[in-house]
Amino acid sequence: MGNAVIIAILVLIIGLAVYSTIRRIRYGSSCCGERDPAEKKIKVADTNIHNYPYTYTLQVDGMHCANCARRVENALNRIEGRWATADIGRKEVLLRSKREETEKEIGSAIDSAGYTMLSFRKH
What is the pLDDT of residues 59-69, one digit of tens each? Predict the structure, then answer.
């Protein structure tokens, strides 16, 4: 009887671990406390780097995980003529644009995603 209880407890623990792992794989593990599926990535139609004459490096505060990076990228990529790529490790975003951007425009887009732009550097 004692062995059956121990086996039942072990099966329950293993079942919860498998469920948690599958959920993490399917929905991602987020530092943001979200358990929803990741936001769908907005893909840029024009990926020819030569079509983007303006390049900016943005320091963004609050990007801690892939979901954070995707939110920031999406906020910038929503506007036609922009191509943003976030680097979580450096907390930077490389923004390519077909037109000259202002710090205010970009800061507003990042703020709308819930993050803060710390610096704006044009190349």
Answer: 999 888 888 89
